[in-house]
Design brief:
Elements: H1 7-18, E1 26-29, H2 36-45, E2 47-50, E3 55-58, E4 68-70, E5 72-77, H3 83-87, E6 89-93, E7 96-100, H4 103-110, E8 113-118, H5 125-137, E9 139-140, E10 143-144, E11 150-155, H6 171-174, E12 178-181, H7 186-196, H8 200-208, H9 228-240, H10 248-259, H11 261-272, H12 280-284, H13 297-309, H14 319-331, H15 334-347, H16 352-361, H17 369-375, H18 380-384
Length: 385
């Protein structure tokens, strides 16, 4: 069984491949609806072509210098292509037949592009054989890709292939690609959802009910299951129509069509009790610690994750927030305290928040320091240092 990686790790390793002297073609292999296409587009936005150095540039905005140009994004659904869509149309020149490439392939040959071949394992054999040459030799029918053109593909095969109507890549075909099996984490989705403006209610629901984000078992074709894609689609409809605040029966009926019965029931029940949820502002700004009563480890952990999602630990804490964070630290179980400490110490490079926090937890003989002693392996001297 192949070892899968999350999207954060994939983004890092893909960058190394693309910045190498030869940008090898990259294939993402994974389940439907997990965001393979979106991560390709996210990486593409970070790429440009340095015409002076004749190399790919990462995170250098186009237009910064005259020689930095953006990469044109070209997406082709291989599953919808015929051989003619790939090779183009023949013409006679000087008594011999040549093929005129389709416009998208000529573009990828004339200027730097991100060529994204989606659903490659659903393509007919003739199309796949054509892309065999594109991936292996960066050319087709005599036409060579621009040196700044990079190639991505996305497929559903691999360890999940038996659940899909796809063709297996034979060993020689797969060897043309750098293949990554992707299994994004819930944190991947939560980070994306924060940046994408997913409704706060839905974000909190997924954060606290992670098993409902997607279905990981075998698939019954008669059942509607949740996926990362389907939650995004639901969010778009429900938010635009204010349905998260509507009649629960309407919300249930709508949600079931997107994510299935089980997830729909859970979401509606969650929203009914949403007023009991604790916000970041309740604790860090208002100091409403009475709301922590009857909150279990799962709820408290979710609260810390909400703090991280809104970048509490990445910004400098005010004196009031630092004081309240220390008070929260003193009240939660050790497992949650560890999460607070981990997020705090990794949030900023200048350690200003750690210093502020430490001055609070160790002031006035607070018993809260016992958590720090535990985090330091029982060494009180280590805490003082």
């Amino acid at each position: 069984m192949a070892t899968a990686i999350d999207f954060k790790t994939f983004g890092t390793v893909a960058s190394h491949i693309l910045l190498a002297e030869q940008p090898y073609p990259i294939m993402l292999r994974g389940r439907h609806g997990v965001g393979k296409s979106q991560v390709v587009y996210q990486i593409a936005e970070r790429l440009s072509w340095d015409a002076e150095k004749q190399s790919i540039a990462l995170d250098v905005p186009a237009g910064t210098r005259d020689n930095i140009v953006p990469l044109t994004m070209i997406e082709r659904r291989a599953s919808q292509m015929t051989e003619g869509d790939l090779l183009g149309l023949p013409s006679i020149d000087g008594g011999s037949t040549t093929f005129n490439p389709p416009d998208w392939f000529k573009t990828a040959c004339d200027r730097p592009c991100v060529l994204f071949l989606d659903e490659l394992d659903r393509a007919i054999t003739e199309v796949r054989q054509g892309f065999f040459e594109v991936a292996g030799s960066r050319k087709l029918s005599g036409w060579k890709l621009h040196p700044g053109t990079v190639i991505f593909a996305a497929v559903n095969g691999g360890q999940h292939g038996s659940q899909y109507q796809v063709a297996d890549l034979d060993p020689a075909e797969a060897d043309r690609w750098i293949v990554f099996d992707v299994e994004p984490t819930v944190e991947d989705w939560l980070t994306w959802a924060t940046d994408s403006g997913i409704n706060k209610v839905l974000w909190d629901f997924i954060n606290q009910n992670r098993a409902h984000l997607e279905h990981n078992g075998d698939i019954d074709p008669t059942v509607v299951y949740p996926s990362r894609r389907s939650w995004d689609r639901l969010n778009g409809v429900a938010t635009s129509r204010n349905l998260f605040e509507a009649d629960p029966s309407i919300l249930y009926a709508l949600t079931a069509g997107f994510v299935g019965t089980e997830a729909s029931v859970a979401l509606v029940d969650f929203i009914k009790n949403y007023e009991r949820q604790i916000s970041v502002e309740d604790i860090l700004d208002e100091g409403m610690f009475e709301k922590l009563e009857d909150q279990g480890i799962t709820d408290l952990t979710a609260l810390v994750e909400k703090m991280d999602a809104v970048n509490v630990f990445g910004e400098e804490l005010s004196d009031n927030r630092s004081k309240n964070l220390a008070e929260l630290f003193s009240r939660v179980p050790s497992e949650v305290a560890m999460k607070i400490w981990t997020q705090l110490t990794s949030g900023r490079d200048d350690e200003v928040n750690v210093v502020k926090f430490y001055s609070q937890v160790c002031s006035d003989g607070r018993p809260v320091a016992s958590h720090l002693v535990e985090l330091c392996g029982g060494d009180g001297d280590a805490v003082k240092s």
